[in-house]
Amino acid sequence: MVFAKTDIGKEREQNQDYYYIPDANDDIKLYILADGMGGYKGGEIASKLATESVKQYIYDNFETTEKQKEGILKLVKDAISYANFKVYERSKQTEDLGGMGTTLEVCLIYNNKAYIGHIGDSRIYRIRKGLIRRLTKDHSYVQKLIEDGKITRQEALTHPKKNMLTKALGCTPYVEPDIRARNIEQNDILIMCSDGLTNMISEETICEVVRENPNVAADELIKRANQSGGYDNITVVIIM
Length: 240
Fold this sequence. Notes:
By secondary structure, this protein is α+β, with helices and mostly antiparallel strands. The chain is 34% helix and 26% strand. It has one domain (2-239): PPM-type phosphatase domain (Phosphatase 2c, domain 1), CATH 3.60.40.10.
C-alpha cells in the first residue's frame, strides 16, 4: 500500500518536485522522488526526466537482472547513472537549462528488501516499532559541517547555507550515488520526502503523524509544512 502527494507550497511559482509510484497490480515495486533545481523550467524538467529515466531503465532491465543483492544494487546504480547522463545531456542542448539538476531517491522493493539509491538532500526514512530512522545521508554543505564537528545538528536547522548541495544528479557527466539494501520487516513504514517537508517540521513530528494514521499522513504532513511556512515544494511518499 502506498500514499503519495506533492504540493507547490506557499512561496514557489511552480512545483519542481516529481515522483513515481507503481500501480497496485504492478509486479515491480519501484518508488522514485526527485526535487529539481535550476532556472525557470530547469528544475521541473530535471526532476521529471530523472524520474522517468530511472523508471524506464529499471523496467527495461529488471527481468534480465540477477535477483541477488549485488545484482539488484547494480541495477539501481546503473539506472541512476543513466538518468544522470540523460539530464546532463539535456542541460547541454538548451542554454536556458544550463546547470539544471535534481536530487533523487530510488526505492526498489524486492523479496523483503528495500534497495535504495540516493543523491542530494531529499530523504528516505523507516518507521519500525514506533521509532523513526533516516536511511539516507544528506549530500549537503551543512551535513559535512556536522561530520567535521563544526556545527551541531540543531545549528544545522537554521544554517544560512543549509540548502547548498555537495552532490546532485545531472550537474556533471558522472555521479556516484549512495546505494544500499535494507531489510523490511512486517509493519515497517518507509517515508520518502523532499526537503520542503524536512526543513519545515521535525523528524519526531513526521513519525508522530505517520504513526497516528498513515492513510492520511501525506496530506497531514503537507498541511503542517505549509502551516510552518511552506517555503518550498513539498512531496511525501508513504510505503506500507
